Amino acid sequence: EVQLVESGGGLVQPGGSLRLSCAASGFTFNSYWMSWVRQAPGKGLEWVGNINQHGGGKYYVDSMKGRFTISRDNAKNSLFLQMNSLRAEDTAVYYCAREATAARGDFDYWGQGTLVTVSS
Amino acid sequence: DIQMTQSPSSVSSSVGDRVTITCRASQGISSWLAWYQQKPGRAPKLLIYAASSLRSGVPSRFSGSGSGTDFTLTISSLQPEDFATYYCQQGNSFPFTFGPGTKVDIK
What is residue A102's predicted lDDT score, i.e. its pLDDT? Predict the structure, then answer.
């Protein structure tokens, strides 16, 4: 059974940093592109960025480029999102998601999400 | 960036109704369009990919159509478990973008 489990969310002050993790199981992790998608409270879905199977290719939404970094550890079947210079508008539930079709989205499995709250 | 719009933003329907949701892209995206269902407090679920391909395990009352800029998600006979918010998402080019969502609720 495919499972994605996020962790690392919590309350952080504006300007602070947080590192989210996503533990994957039940599939060959190093065969898939992986993405992060976020959802602000009561709002719609927003793609954050993704990473290719081997970590050599990464794409981000412009508003997060330079502040957020996606990485992966295929040996540990784990995906990460390092978030720096956090702002109140980064408050959201962050999901990791598997891309069924490489570099096309089609997110066929999602984690349960982890809440990040940016507030003083 | 490719902008995605959806209409209607919400629809009130009854069990058994046929429901159609439209998604439009600001530029052509071929058939790189997916549809998701999300219920409150839950992660989204993939329903349709490549505009019209039904994901395995998704009931056949869901169908998708379209290509280029105009797409449709149809629920042929609404069931109680279908009351949710539906999002389209383009995968033609980075950054991936989602539509604003269509909430389907009970009339």
Answer: 87
DSSP string, A36-71: EEEE-TTS-EEEEEEE-TTSS-EEE-GGGBTTEEEE
pLDDT, tens digit (0-9, with 9 covering 90-100), for B30-56:
999 999 999 999 999 999 999 999 999
B interface residues, A as partner, C-beta within 8 Å: 1, 32, 34, 36, 38, 43-46, 49-50, 55, 87, 89-92, 94-101
Q: What share of chain A is helix, strand, coil (3-state, %, to 5)?
A: 10, 50, 40
Residue of B nearest to A61 (CA): B95
Tell me the per-residue pLDDT of B61-75, one tens digit each, with 9 for 90 and over: 999 999 999 999 999
Count Cα neighbours of B7 within 13 Å in the Cβ-side half-sphere. Answer: 3
Q: Do A106 and B34 lie within an 8 Å CB cutoff?
A: yes
Compute how many other C-beta atoms are within 10 angstroms of the C-beta atom of residue B17: 15
**What pLDDT was estimated at residue B107?**
85
Residue from the list A50, A108, A112 with its beta carbon closest to the beta carbon of B55: A108
* Closest alpha carbon to B49 in A19, A42, A100: A100
